[in-house]
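Re: that backbone. Tokens:
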């Protein structure tokens, strides 16, 4: 079977915050993962919710175009990559006339979904 993925790049949240939430849903069914993210109050949950919904919608759209006969409810989150993007560097006045650097971090997120029956052979 084919894998379906979605990517969100240059998101204004630090990768560490997204990874904390991402560890909750790795290897879980898509519907379970969406329920977990909907109930999580962490900052990265909203971003991951959007990316997983997008990957699932990509699979449904591909199924309509190519008639792959897939069941989107059986998808599992097989891969979740959270990488750091470019940092925006800002400066703030500090004591004794110095300038302190502030790094505003960005994040790249990639989610890959696959059908449950396809992942059994890989493990």
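Recovered sequence:
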């Amino acid at each position: 079977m084919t894998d379906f993925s979605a990517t969100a790049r240059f998101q204004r949240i630090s990768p560490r915050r997204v990874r904390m939430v991402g560890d909750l849903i790795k290897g879980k069914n898509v519907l379970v993962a969406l329920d977990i993210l909907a109930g999580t109050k962490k900052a990265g949950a909203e971003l991951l919710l959007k990316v997983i919904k997008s990957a699932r919608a990509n699979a449904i759209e591909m199924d309509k175009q190519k008639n792959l006969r897939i069941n989107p409810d059986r998808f599992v989150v097989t891969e979740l990559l959270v990488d750091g993007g470019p940092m925006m560097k800002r400066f703030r006045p500090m004591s004794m006339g110095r300038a302190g650097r502030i790094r505003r971090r960005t994040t790249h997120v990639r989610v890959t979904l696959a059908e449950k029956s396809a992942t059994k052979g890989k493990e």
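The two ends are 15 Å apart (CA to CA). DSSP finds four helices and five strands in the chain.
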